[in-house]
Amino acid sequence: MNQEKQPSASPNRRVFSFGKAREEKRDAIYRGETIHELSEERALPAKGIADVPFLLITAALVLFGCVMVYSASSVYAEQYHDDNTYFIARHLVFLLMAVAFTAIAVKFCTPSFWKDFSYVLYGVSVVLLLLVLVIGDDLDSGAKRWLNFGFITVQPSEIAKIALVLTMARFMATHEKQILSEHRFGGNFRYGVLYPGCMIGVFVLLVAAERHISGIMILGMIGIAVMFLGGTRLRWIVGIGAVIACAGCLLILVSEYAQARVDTWINIDDADPLGAAWQTLQGLMAIGSGGVFGTGLGNSRQKFGFVSQPQNDFIFTIVCEELGFVGAFLVVALFVAYVWRGFHIARHAPDKFSALTVYGLTFKVALQVILNIAVVTNSMPNTGIALPFFSYGGTALMLQIFEVGIILSISRYASHKKI
Q1: Given a cut of 80, is residue 38 above it in pLDDT?
Q2: What is the pLDDT of residues 237-251, one digit of tens each?
Q3: Which of 72, 164, 205, 353 is most buried, by CB atoms within 10 Å?
């Protein structure tokens, strides 16, 4: 009696294993099934507690960030608002609000809820980005990127980053069979490149209209990362990356604002130290004056009007000045631990949508940390990239805590034992 031979794996097929039933999932793909179909048939693991190490690492980052927001902002707050607690008080209010909402999400939201919520959030993000072009506020920055509701300001591009991760994770998980198929135009190109590329492209075009180059970079890189992890072939990834890079260069060529930033970065020694190069040079002075152990918490000299709005994008320079190399190393170490634990949760996620979501959100934080440190050390042109959990910002902090809530809620269904 002839037995049907199981097809072997294609040498060009990249399969990522998620959860503890790895062999089962891999064999299912070889049989033509998808991880999505397989996970639908199997009930989620029993709900447990949220991942404690990830929670503790996040808490350490948030508390460290609060200390530095107060230290960095106290002089600026006293000068412009006659209250040295002006920024930290608002920072703590937004933090407490975010923690309250996030606790509810961790308690009651399941991976299927985030999957259903993804397309809704994508649509809301598109509407908000369109509103920015019509009624946006520049908040004295020279570029309209915010919606000002009086009691709160919202930057829709930050919401779009979360929406992109959730939406692409859902799409890549749902259409995994087509993405991994050998049929190019009806399968791996259409579902692995064309449709995901359009999802990224909508956001990139809307953010480009805001002249928000760092937003374009982050959205593009996040999208490419989720596509790669979702199974899109490497040659398509390289092609998309080249297209996005060319689009970024084109935007710089047609934007005098962007050209000025790049020119200052390249010719920093010849740039006007009292003009375009002021913030970068003052930030470098703060970093260099910190030494090994720093000047001491609260003893920064550069925050006295030298580093512009030190509680925002350049807060890492104040960390370096006050706490020195030791403090800077601790910040980086905490973020490395955050990424490591996030990826650990993703590897043991209950299904592919959950895994891609956690990978994407964790990658987003890692990317923003790398870019922020690159900016303040003049390793790349100065552009507005906040340091997660540290830079002052009401809605930005709330969204970062919200991302943590998504990861923690998924970790309750992870297949590994909590440690």
Answers
A1: no
A2: 888 888 877 877 887
A3: 72
